[in-house]
């Protein structure tokens, strides 16, 4: 049973998504202009259910642009994005099955909201169209939600932070809390955009281990932008090398082979590789 199992009118789509080799994301000929600049050109790939896929590439390669286009946060110039078998524009309530942890999570650190309350924001009722007691009196406590929040925080080893103000958390603690926010409801796809930037080496390794455990338990498909090729090669199933266009993709030992890294990062990589 997946944590935070949710009611959804699109049950058939979800059942399909639980089976292996189901296509969670399908990108066809995606191009994105940012102003007059072509940030992404003619990118196509598919993500299968239950895989942990990294997007790597140099600064300005279009990695965040790709993630934002998949989430529908920025417009596409051309091409098609399908999520769970549906065009992005027709995702409807299935959108709640996407979890996203951005590169930077900017908020007012003096805002008085606790960790438990933040995670609770990710929880939704099972029957959204019925006027339940909770919807009529949203300030009243909801035992189902409390249980879901506690079990998500426990799973990311952050239950002890539950009553702490979110503004006082360290970078690593905040990332765990955001992961709990994603975990409190059933999700299919988790997108992380350099989510571990600024987290120390041990924290990063622990987070990757936790992410892979959750991927197996929850059958999450994970798409993560990362600059840490070492972590990527150890923890991801597939790697997509991007530099404005898709340079290559495949298992880490193939995609991260020196000739592919040279094609992705250019001569600067050759110097780096030589010096280390
Ligand atoms: N809002 C914007 N307006 C105009 N150009 C932008 C905008 N955002 C990004 N760009 C440009 O699009 C290109 C791709 O940027 P993007 O942030 O997707 O790269 P990235 O691979 O995520 O880089 P990094 O590794 O540095 O985070 C860059 O040349 C960037 O300058």
Outline of the structure:
36% of the residues lie in helices and 23% in strands. The protein is α/β, with parallel strands linked by helices and 276 residues long.
Describe this entry's structure for a reader.
It is globular and about 50 Å long. About 5% of the residues have low confidence. Helices cover 36% and strands 23% of the residues. Strand 7, helix 7 and strand 8 form a beta-alpha-beta unit. The protein has 276 residues and is an alpha/beta fold. It has 11 helices and 10 strands. Helix 5 crosses helix 6 and helix 10 crosses helix 11. It has a 6-stranded mixed sheet, sandwiched between helices. Adenosine-5'-triphosphate binds next to strand 2 and helix 2. This is Metal ABC transporter ATP-binding protein. InterPro entries: AAA+_ATPase (IPR003593), ABC_transporter-like_ATP-bd (IPR003439), Metal_Ion_Import_ABC (IPR050153), P-loop_NTPase (IPR027417). It comes from Laspinema palackyanum D2a. Keywords: ATP-binding, Nucleotide-binding, Transport. One of its GO terms (molecular function) is ATP binding.
């Amino acid at each position: 049973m997946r944590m935070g199992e949710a009611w959804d009118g699109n049950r058939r789509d979800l059942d399909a998504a639980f089976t292996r080799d189901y296509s969670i994301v399908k990108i066809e000929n995606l191009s994105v202009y940012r102003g007059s600049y072509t940030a992404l050109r003619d990118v196509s790939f598919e993500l299968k259910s239950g895989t942990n896929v990294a997007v790597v590439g140099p600064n300005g390669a279009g990695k965040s642009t790709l993630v934002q286009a998949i989430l529908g946060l920025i417009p596409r110039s051309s091409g098609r994005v399908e999520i769970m078998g549906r065009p992005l524009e027709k995702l409807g309530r299935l959108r709640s099955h996407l979890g996203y942890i951005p590169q930077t999570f900017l908020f007012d650190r003096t805002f008085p909201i606790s960790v438990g309350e933040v995670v609770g924001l990710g929880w939704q009722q099972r029957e959204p169209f019925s006027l339940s007691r909770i919807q009529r009196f949203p300030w009243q406590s909801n035992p189902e939600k409390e249980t879901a929040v506690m079990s998500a925080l426990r799973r990311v080893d952050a239950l002890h932070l539950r009553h702490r103000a979110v503004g006082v958390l360290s970078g690593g603690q905040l990332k765990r809390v955001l992961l709990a926010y994603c975990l409190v409801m059933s999700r299919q796809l988790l997108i992380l955009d350099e989510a571990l930037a600024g987290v120390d080496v041990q924290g990063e390794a622990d987070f990757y281990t936790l992410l892979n455990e959750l991927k197996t338990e929850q059958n999450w498909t994970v798409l993560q932008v990362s600059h840490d090729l070492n972590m990527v090669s150890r923890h991801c199933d597939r790697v997509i090398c991007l530099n404005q266009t898709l340079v290559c993709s495949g298992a880490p030992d193939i995609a991260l082979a020196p000739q592919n890294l040279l094609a992705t990062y250019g001569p600067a990589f050759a110097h780096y590789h030589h010096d280390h």
